[in-house]
Specification:
- By secondary structure, this protein is an all-alpha fold.
- It has one domain.
- The chain is built from 11 helices and no strands.
- The longest helix is centred in the middle third of the chain and has 40 residues.
- The chain is globular, with a radius of gyration of 22 Å.
- The model has no long low-confidence stretch (mean pLDDT 78).
Length: 299
């Protein structure tokens, strides 16, 4: 795509932020993500307890702290510590199913928001969209876990691989940097899968790459900037008291949702620019049944 076309894509995507009420949808998604975040972490703690890696859940939270602002991460650690206990094996029953169902609510809300970003109606039945939300909970959540896993076991895996394959000393120098690229690739793949699966529009997987790269890059930069803002300028504890950390978490989730929706709008513009402007739905809308005139019934 030519540079001129990319300029038009970005301009139209920014225009869509107001037309599609992106700020309002981001606020709604931040609410869904708050409802989904902690059940997802609780379910994760129950599952990783069976992995042969010591203290893997706490290591996962430590890696999350690299991307989540400190004030927000403090709330996450406190709530997870209060809920998760050594007897969390009981969660692998009805409680785990309930946690996964709640965690899928964020993806269900994302499906609706992405349909608006792509300017398409939702013609799929409820059971199909909710099943898709559950599928994305496992699939996209798995990709994000792989990204965190590369960071958690990355150094030891690099040393193990070097010993098994008898790699050179250069590998030991390159791998610490390479694992960041591998982790970033998993995050981009997760966001790209979200853009490809969630909206009710037929598109090629390649059409979702531009928005995914933008969203991940913007999200990383935004998280870094918010971390500085929370630590150096904002004092939510003075304004909101004990709710300061919760407000910081909601603020981070709001802007994270905003950049994800903005990336989807970029993809929507790329899709229109790459074809004839016609957007095809994954499922055609049901045909309207014409009413039978009363005169025909009488006859």
């Amino acid at each position: 795509m030519a540079a001129r076309n990319w300029g038009s894509v970005l301009k139209n995507a920014l225009v869509d932020t107001e037309r599609n009420h992106t700020a309002a949808f981001a606020a709604g998604l931040s609410y869904y993500f708050v409802l989904s975040l902690f059940p997802a972490l609780i379910a994760l703690s129950a599952v990783v307890a069976f992995l042969p890696v010591p203290d893997v859940f706490n290591q996962t939270l430590t890696q999350m702290a690299r991307f989540v602002p400190a004030d927000s991460m403090g709330v996450v650690r406190q709530i997870v510590h209060d809920v998760v206990n050594p007897h969390s094996g009981a969660l692998l029953s009805v409680g785990l199913i309930g946690a996964l169902w709640t965690a899928s609510s964020g993806f269900a809300g994302m499906i609706e928001a992405l349909n608006v970003a792509y300017h398409v109606p939702e013609t799929r039945p409820f059971w199909k969209t909710r099943g898709l939300a559950l599928l994305m909970t496992f699939g996209i959540g798995g990709l994000l876990l792989m990204a965190l896993g590369v960071m958690v076991v990355g150094p030891r895996f690099g040393d193990w691989l070097a010993g098994v394959l008898h790699l050179s000393f250069l590998w030991a120098r390159v791998w610490p940097v390479l694992r960041w690229a591998v982790s970033g690739a998993f995050i981009v793949a997760a966001v790209e899968s979200l853009y490809f699966l969630a909206p009710n529009v037929k598109q090629r997987f390649a059409h979702t790459l531009a928005g995914a790269v933008f969203a991940v890059a913007a999200w990383l930069g935004l998280s870094f900037a918010l971390g500085i803002y929370f630590q150096s300028f904002a004092n939510f504890n003075r304004t909101y008291g004990a709710l300061g950390g919760v407000i910081a978490l909601m603020t981070w989730l709001y802007w994270s949702s905003f950049v994800i929706l903005l990336g989807a709008q970029i993809n929507g513009q790329v899709l229109q620019a790459s074809g004839d402007g016609t957007v095809r739905l994954k499922q055609a809308p049901p045909e309207k049944v014409k009413a039978v005139p009363e005169s025909d019934i009488a006859a």
